């Protein structure tokens, strides 16, 4: 049993250490789900440029990935999913994270930049982003749809 534990546990720890929580992606996806892309594209652009300034990737890759993920979520939210329940938000977040990682990987491959992350990192980032985006959606709903003292919106 000890040999199995020592064989399986260290690779999991290494994968968790190399994958970080992407708060910017989670915040942008939560904004697009609660508002529309037309109302939140400026915030997404600003956050993308700020992250691009401090990342090691070629400038603009993260911004393009964030904008494409936000646009796709908005199109899916408007034309495919008519109601807004829990599972709709989960599916939208999942598709947004997948589009973000796919576009980022393709663009990094064009510039011959190795992200050094396989499918295991994608799965972990999806899990992180779902949890963090859920918290952001819950808190942003409180801010955007806060009732006044009279009980009216």
Write structural notes for this entry.
The protein is built from 6 helices and no strands. By secondary structure, it is an all-alpha fold. Helix 2 (23-34) packs across helix 5 (86-110). The radius of gyration is 18 Å and the shape is globular. It has one domain (21-144). Helix content is 77%, strand content 0%.
The biggest beta sheet, please?
none
Mean pLDDT over the full residue set: 78
Helix and strand composition category = mainly alpha
Radius of gyration: 18 Å
End-to-end distance, in Å? 59 Å
Total strands: the figure is: 0
The helix fraction, in percent, is over 70%
Order of helices and strands: HHHHHH
Query: Low-confidence parts lasting 5 or more residues at pLDDT below 50?
Result: 12-18
Count of DSSP-assigned helices: 6
Number of domains: 1
Strand content range: under 5%
């Amino acid at each position: 049993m000890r040999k199995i534990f020592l064989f399986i546990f260290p690779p999991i720890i290494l994968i968790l250490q190399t994958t970080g929580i992407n708060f910017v992606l989670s915040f942008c996806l939560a904004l697009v789900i609660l508002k529309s892309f037309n109302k939140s594209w400026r915030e997404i652009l600003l956050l993308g440029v700020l992250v691009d300034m401090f990342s090691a990737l070629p400038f603009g890759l993260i911004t393009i990935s964030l904008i494409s993920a936000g646009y796709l979520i908005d199109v899916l939210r408007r034309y495919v999913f008519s109601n807004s329940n829990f599972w709709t938000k989960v599916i939208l977040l999942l598709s947004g994270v997948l589009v973000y990682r796919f576009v980022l990987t393709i663009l990094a491959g064009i510039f011959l930049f190795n992200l050094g992350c396989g499918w295991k990192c994608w799965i972990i980032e999806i899990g992180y982003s779902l949890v963090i985006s859920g918290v952001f959606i819950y808190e942003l709903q409180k801010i955007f749809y806060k009732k006044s003292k009279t009980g009216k919106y």
